[in-house]
Design brief:
Blueprint (H helix, E strand, L loop, with lengths): L11 H12 L5 H17 L3 H21 L7 E5 L9 H15 L3 E4 L5 H9 L4 E6 L17 E4 L2 H10 L3 E4 L4 H15 L8 E4 L5 H14 L13 E3 L2 H11 L3 E7 L2 E6 L5 H10 L11 E3 L16 E5 L5 H13 L4
Parallel strand pairs: 1-2, 1-5, 2-3, 3-4, 5-6, 6-7
Antiparallel strand pairs: 8-9, 9-11, 10-11
Helix pairs in contact: 1-2, 4-5, 4-9
Length: 345
C-alpha cells in the first residue's frame, strides 16, 4: 500500500501504535510514530542499497550522540576546533591547555574532535571528566587521543556531517584555533550557520597566534568579500578575534550574563533573559537598533507564550519579543551584546 503522512494508513497506523505501546517508555510517541512511518516510506521509495545504509547509519549515529549528551544538558559547553598537527611544545597547544582549564574551572565542558593536536590540548586542559570527543574515522591523524580513549563521552562517526551537527548543536560557544583545511571547513560552516540563523546565536571566537593567522585571513575577508558586497558590515558582529585566553573566556561569560536563549513563535522572536528589562532599556534598544525591528512593530516585554509549554523550566524567565525578518543575524548578536551591557561586571 502507498503510505502517506497526511492521510490515514490503516492497518499500518494501528500496527505502529501497537509497536510503540508494546515497546514501553517511549518519549514523545507521536514523533516516534512519524519516524517509523518515515522509515517504512524510505523502504518503499529507495531501492539503492548504499543510500539505505547511509540513512541507517546516520540515524544510529544521531541516536547515540543524543544519548551521550543528554545527561549534561544543564551544563554549558564550548566546542574547540584546531589543527590535529599542532605539537605539544607549540605555544598554541599550551594556550589551548590553559584556556580549556579555565573553562572547566568556570563549570564549562569542552567538546573537541577527540584527536591529537589542539583537540588533545582542549581535552587535556579541561580533563577527561569535563570533556567530550566527537571523533571521525580517518585513515590517518584521527584516532582518539589518550585523554579520551575509552571515555564514555567519546563518540566516533563515519560521516563528517553527523559529527558537525554534534559540534554545533551541543555548543554554547565555539572557539577556533589556527588549523588547516578541516579547521577552516568547520569554522566557515559555523559562520554560515550563525549568519543564516540555522543555529542559535552564540559566541564564535577566533584564537589568534603571534603570527596573525586570523588577522591575515580577515584581510582577505575585508578585501575580497566585504569590498565586493558578498557580506555586510554587520557580519563582523558574528565573531571575536583575540590572542588572549582570558578575553575569550570573558566573551563567553558576558554573552550569557543576561541573555538566556531564544525561540521563534511563528515570525515573532522571543528572547528569554536572566533579568527583566526596564522601560529605559527598551527605549535604548529601540533607538539603537531600528533596523532589527520590522515597520509597525515594537519591542515588547512579555511572559511565556503558550507554545513554550514544552519548556516548563524556562516559564518564569522574563522575556522580550519582536517581529524579526530572519535576515540580520549579525545585528541580532550585536543586539544581545547590548542587552548584556546594561549590567556590566
Amino acid at each position: 500500500m502507498e503510505l502517506s503522512f497526511s492521510k490515514k494508513n490503516e492497518p499500518i497506523d494501528f500496527i505502529i501504535s501497537r509497536l510503540v505501546e508494546e515497546s514501553g517508555d517511549i518519549h514523545h510517541p507521536s514523533i516516534i510514530k512519524d519516524m517509523i512511518l518515515a522509515t517504512l516510506k524510505i523502504g518503499q521509495d529507495v531501492d539503492y542499497l548504499a543510500d539505505l545504509k547511509l540513512i541507517n547509519r546516520t540515524l544510529r549515529e544521531m541516536r547515540y550522540t543524543a544519548k551521550v549528551f543528554a545527561p549534561y544538558r544543564h551544563r554549558k559547553k564550548v566546542t574547540i576546533f584546531g589543527s590535529a598537527r599542532t605539537v605539544e611544545t607549540d605555544d598554541m597547544y599550551k594556550k589551548c591547555v590553559r584556556f580549556s582549564r579555565c573553562l572547566a574551572e568556570n563549570n564549562y565542558m569542552v567538546i573537541t574532535g577527540g584527536g591529537p593536536g589542539i583537540m588533545q590540548a582542549g581535552n587535556e586542559g579541561a580533563g577527561s571528566e569535563n570533556s567530550f570527543a566527537v571523533n571521525i574515522r580517518l585513515p590517518f591523524e584521527q584516532k582518539p587521543n589518550p585523554i579520551m580513549y575509552r571515555n564514555p563521552r567519546l563518540v566516533t562517526y563515519k560521516y563528517f556531517f553527523n559529527r558537525k551537527v554534534a559540534f554545533v548543536k551541543e555548543a554554547d560557544a565555539i572557539v577556533v584555533f589556527p588549523g588547516g583545511f578541516g579547521t577552516l571547513d568547520e569554522a566557515m560552516e559555523v559562520f554560515t550557520l550563525i549568519q543564516t540563523g540555522k543555529t542559535s546565536p552564540k559566541p564564535l571566537i577566533l584564537m589568534d597566534d603571534e603570527g596573525g593567522y586570523w588577522e591575515r585571513f580577515f584581510d582577505f575577508v575585508r578585501v575580497s568579500l566585504l569590498a565586493q558586497g558578498f557580506i555586510s558590515e554587520e557580519d563582523f558582529s558574528l565573531f571575536t578575534v583575540t590572542r588572549n585566553e582570558q578575553e575569550a573566556l570573558a566573551t563567553i561569560n558576558t554573552f550569557y550574563r543576561v541573555y538566556h536563549s531564544l525561540r521563534f513563535i511563528e515570525n515573532r522572536l522571543v528572547i528569554r533573559l536572566q533579568k527583566a528589562l526596564s522601560h529605559d532599556h527598551i527605549a535604548t534598544l529601540t533607538q539603537e537598533f531600528p533596523g532589527l525591528i520590522k515597520d509597525g512593530d515594537q519591542i515588547r516585554c512579555c511572559e511565556a507564550f503558550p507554545e513554550e509549554s514544552d519548556e516548563p523550566d524556562l516559564a518564569l524567565l522574563p522575556r522580550i519579543s519582536l517581529l524579526f525578518d530572519h535576515h540580520h543575524y549579525g545585528l541580532l548578536i550585536a543586539f544581545i551584546n547590548r542587552i548584556n551591557s546594561f549590567w556590566p561586571i
